[in-house]
Write a structure and sequence with these properties.
The chain is an alpha/beta fold. Helices cover about 40% and strands about 20% of the residues.
Length: about 300
């Protein structure tokens, strides 16, 4: 990963603040309780998981000689590291995430937020993976705790671009079926999909005893609707057009958005899911640190 990628996603000031922060499991995750690490990560592995093709930089001691003898190719053994927390960051890269009214799109904001989260978890010696999705899973990087993982995840974040429509519920159910061990699931999305599809998916994670955090990322104009003149709006995912007088519907719009977010907060609370609304006008590090401080106080 070129150095400029680190400068882009991990500002030194933010990194220095993250050094004092923690993101610990509040619920029981794979037999461990809040804040308890089984042991520090020491660069070795304890449980064989799978083979993958050798890449430059991989430790030579992990090359499987038996597989080389059969295939004449180098494969290394991958292991599951001995950590107490397995994190999954789910990044919504659907077309609606490209919206911006103040210089930074929801997707760009979310990429910075995701980078800070994966850095924080890897700093804690926990394993973390990344899933980028729209109406389907576009990329899935399984959780790892080895030093190369930060490079891998930042590369994937840099490549994430807005694409098609959203199907959050389908993606969440698909991932829930894939996850073999319980962990911490962090969804970063504008949640512009049918709540009747999203909420059962989130509850699926909880049913499987995963801990869940939802960062609900919106542009300020999506909550305030402070347009001053007649305007034609285009759905960024379907292309559908609608012309209206914003001032005549602003009150009803704001009420509808408030009711929608209140419902999401209530439903998440009932399932012990952290619901974190975030506006792109709030610096991402301030929003993240505020949440982490609150999470720490609540224990």
């Amino acid at each position: 990963m070129p150095d400029e990628s680190y400068r882009r996603f991990l500002d030194p000031t933010v990194v220095s603040k993250l050094a004092t922060m923690e993101l610990r499991a509040r619920l029981v995750v794979e037999g461990f309780v809040t804040g308890l690490h089984k042991s520090p990560y020491k660069g070795f592995s304890v449980e064989f998981a799978e083979h993958r093709q050798y890449m430059p930089g991989d430790p030579l001691k992990h090359i499987d000689g038996k597989v080389y003898g059969k295939t004449d190719r180098f494969y290394v053994k991958e292991y599951e590291e001995e950590t107490n927390l397995r994190g999954y960051v789910l990044l919504d890269a659907s077309a609606s995430m490209a919206y911006s009214s103040e210089g930074i799109s929801k997707l760009e904001y979310s990429r910075y937020l995701a980078a800070a989260l994966v850095y924080l978890m890897l700093k804690q010696q926990d394993s973390v993976g990344l899933l980028v999705f729209d109406q389907e899973i576009r990329e899935f990087l399984p959780p790892r705790a080895h030093p190369r993982q930060l490079h891998v995840l930042l590369s994937a974040l840099a490549a994430a671009a807005p694409s098609s429509s959203t199907d959050i519920g389908l993606v969440i159910h698909d991932l829930a079926r894939r996850m073999r061990k319980r962990g911490l699931v962090i969804l970063i999305s504008d949640l512009l999909d049918d709540p009747a599809d999203i909420l059962p998916g989130l509850k699926h994670f909880r049913h499987m005893r995963h801990e869940v955090v939802v960062f609900h990322v919106l542009d300020p104009r999506e909550t305030e609707f402070d347009f001053d003149v007649d305007a034609t709006f285009r759905d960024m995912e379907t292309g559908e057009l609608m012309t209206t007088e914003p001032f005549s519907i602003r009150g009803d719009y704001r009420n509808a958005v408030r009711d929608w977010m209140t419902m999401l907060r209530r439903e998440c609370a009932e399932s012990r899911i952290d619901y974190v609304p975030v506006l792109t006008s709030t610096p991402y590090d301030r929003a993240l640190f505020s949440y982490l401080e609150k999470r720490k106080r609540l224990g």
